[in-house]
Structures
1.
Amino acid sequence: MMTLHGVDVFLRTPSIPELPKEFGAFTLVLISNRGSRVYPPPVPEMELSDWQQCRYLSDDVVSDAQIDELVLHLTGLGWQWTKCQKLFKIDGDNAFSQPY
């Protein structure tokens, strides 16, 4: 069975964003840049692009509406998102990859 558990929100910003660590059922578990984890620290020595992948996950199954609320909240804080990717589990296993 495939269940929805989170979202990767891609933000356009030249630096590592200061985002809410929690929102509703979601927890910010990582931020990556060009496939390398930059949050939580330590940050590898690298030149950052201006496109950050911000992963929010929930231990519980979430709805599309909850993801919409999260993205709307980030927009309300002034962040410009460029795309979102829903994160699913299949039979309890992650159906999404982990950054390095």
Note: The helical segments are 64-76.
2.
Amino acid sequence: MVIAVLFGGGGATHNQDPQLEDFLMTRLPLNPVIGHIGMANDDNPDRIERVTRRFRELGGKVMHLPKEATADEADIWARGVDAIYVGGGNTARMLTNWRKTGIDRVLTAAARRGVVLSGVSAGAVAWFDFALWDGGGAGYQTLAGLGLIPGSCCPHFTTEPARAAAFRDHLKRGLISAGYAIGDGAGLVIDGDKERTCIVARPNSGVWHISCNGADLCQTDLPNASVAP
């Protein structure tokens, strides 16, 4: 049973949308340990500092997993955290690293133990069967994620029109399975087999389930788990 709170963009790494981390903390025990992964942004020190400061303000402790970590080191790290928060950046590079080192198996085992999955952008989409990413400048492409959450996922749906259009086009062409589009300042909330919901911290943002029925797309708003002021 996967438990996840996944953000389309913004949040602590960009000093925006504090309601997102506030909400994540409601899914965790008192004084939780947050495991942070910054491999997608090459362990950007500013982002590490922002995430550490933000969760410390909320009463949490952050344990950062260095980009050079081995699977054995990651396993020890993962057994001491209540949630795993993955930063944004280069999705393909991050997934390649996880598979090359065996960290993918560590993260899968952690999710199955009940560790809460979280993250922003690349850190949101990596958990799905398929992710849509920007191809490192080579055009939008489909990536195979860890497969912990069925379907596909697209971040930045409300702020990057070309990405949103590419996601719809991939669905219509059958290149990607039905899934979730997450706007910046919003998050997809997954609690096992319960109904998918969302958290919204910005006006005009949200989370949508999008599927293809023949030549037509069906886009459905997810209900709010909590609407931030």
Note: The chain is about 30% helix and 30% strand.
